[in-house]
Design brief:
Helix content is 31%, strand content 22%. The protein has twelve helices and 18 strands.
């Protein structure tokens, strides 16, 4: 399973939680917990510091749960983020000073059996001791003086947070198959699209719904099975329930579980619903899969229940909102009725094979030369980019490195043209493809091609 801790950023409104979230996640795409009826959501993203990766949850202002309207909903969202997290970053504002609400939040957090770090924000240009002085009253340990906007003190804060979770010497199972050659498959998607039904259909048996207890975030179920001599491991993120009092969150979508499943998987099955519109949440999940470089199969479920008009509308909606998934195999299935199910595992194996395909330098270079012969890159002023040779720079996802001169001026449209050309030549359906440009000496110039 993934060895990435989860940090929740909490605090009263306007203390700089989102600024800290953006600072940590940088340009990484954030997913939103898209819960029907909620107008203020919590955001999720992945961050990397000190050669470690971790998940970050940004929350709305922490207000009393007994409040009304949107404030109450924000408080419930924040509480669920705390339940999901392994560590809480309690953010305060030194410029506004210690507030009564800070004391209330501190009292709540002290009752939890969970690591918590106190951070005093907006301290740029201030003497650290003076900025932190009054916050010792919260009895939450030594305050970390930071500036989310300027990045000051963030490194020390995160370094301390990561010390609670020693890095385990576990090899990443994604680049190659596990020792028993099992392909890890994660089934992800919004609530009620049929994930549990699909999992049962793939396994050929009913399974028990997993309970998500407060504070337990790594309880996705890993199910080993074999089909036609091929071993697999299915990562089940379906049927998430929360024990305890029945609230609006009981059947809600666990974004953290989806992020972890995607991170652990070799291949992701993104499940959509033919009877529902393709939503921004679907696109955000797909975007995270693409960013993580995972091989992908898209399955549109409940196809047998949709009439001709609805099917046409779904296909138009998919082409418009999921245009960036043109590389992925799309299947129309019915997990309940069993139609189209015989295509699932062969498509998974094909996607994984494409993601781990080895491409010889001579053939890559020949394909590149053929692509350039058919369509040269546009000139940039008086200079036209020159592409001399290509070699493979990595797998899962495949990475093609192109060497030449003036390659900084290659337009994005031409890169997409090359991507399409390489995909067709090497049968790379089902996997993202990375193309990089480098200018410099040919490292293969003194070697014989094999």
């Amino acid at each position: 399973m993934t060895d990435k801790p989860i940090f929740a950023i909490v605090g009263r409104p306007n203390v700089g939680k989102s600024t800290l979230f953006n600072r940590l996640t940088r340009s990484r795409a954030a997913l939103v917990a898209d819960f029907p009826g909620l107008t203020r959501d919590r955001h999720y993203g992945e961050a990397q510091m000190f050669d470690r990766s971790f998940f970050v949850i940004d929350t709305g202002g922490f207000e009393p749960v007994n409040a009304d309207g949107i404030v109450r909903e924000m408080a419930k969202q924040t509480q669920q983020a705390i339940d999901e997290a392994d560590l809480v970053i309690f953010l305060t504002d030194t410029r506004e000073g210690l507030a009564g609400r800070d004391h209330e939040i501190a009292q709540l957090l002290r009752k939890l059996n969970k690591p918590t770090l106190l951070a005093v924000n907006k301290a740029e240009g201030m003497i650290r001791e003076r900025a932190a002085a009054e916050f010792h009253e919260l009895a939450m340990g030594d305050p970390h003086v930071v500036s989310s906007a300027h990045g000051e003190g963030i490194g020390n804060l995160i370094e301390t947070a990561l010390e609670f979770f020693p890095k385990k010497a576990i090899p990443d199972p994604r680049p190659e198959l596990d020792a028993d050659h099992r392909i890890r498959i994660a089934v992800v998607g919004r609530p009620n699209v049929g994930k549990s039904t699909l999992v049962n259909a793939i396994l050929g048996e009913e399974r028990v719904i997993a309970f998500d207890q407060p504070g337990t975030t790594r309880d996705s179920i890993y199910l080993d099975f074999e089909r036609n001599g091929h071993p697999y491991q299915l990562i089940d993120t379906a049927g998430i329930r929360r024990r305890g009092k029945v609230t609006e969150a009981i059947e809600k979508f666990s974004v953290i579980k989806t992020l972890q499943a995607i991170d652990d998987a070799n291949v992701v099955i993104l499940l959509l619903d033919a009877l529902q519109d393709v939503t921004d949440s679907d696109a955000q999940i797909a975007g995270f899969v693409l960013e993580q470089g995972r091989a992908l199969v898209v399955a549109i479920n409940k196809w047998e229940a949709a009439d001709t008009e609805v099917r046409a509308a779904v296909e138009r909606d998919y082409e418009r909102k999921m245009y960036f998934l043109a590389f992925a195999k799309r299947l129309n299935i019915s997990a309940k009725a069993g139609s189209g199910m015989n295509q699932i595992l062969p498509s998974v194996r094909a996607a994984y094979a494409a993601a781990t395909r080895k491409m010889a330098t001579p053939k890559l270079t020949r394909v590149l030369q053929l692509a350039v012969q058919q369509q040269q890159p546009a000139r940039h002023g008086a200079v036209r980019p020159k592409m001399r040779y290509a070699h493979q720079g990595g797998q899962n996802p495949p990475r093609i490195v192109i060497h030449g001169s003036s390659l900084d001026d290659v337009p994005p449209a031409y890169t997409r043209y090359l991507e399409h050309f390489f995909r067709k030549a090497f049968e790379l359906t089902g996997t993202p493809l990375r193309i990089e440009y480098r200018v410099g000496h040919n490292p293969f110039a003194d070697q014989n091609d094999r």
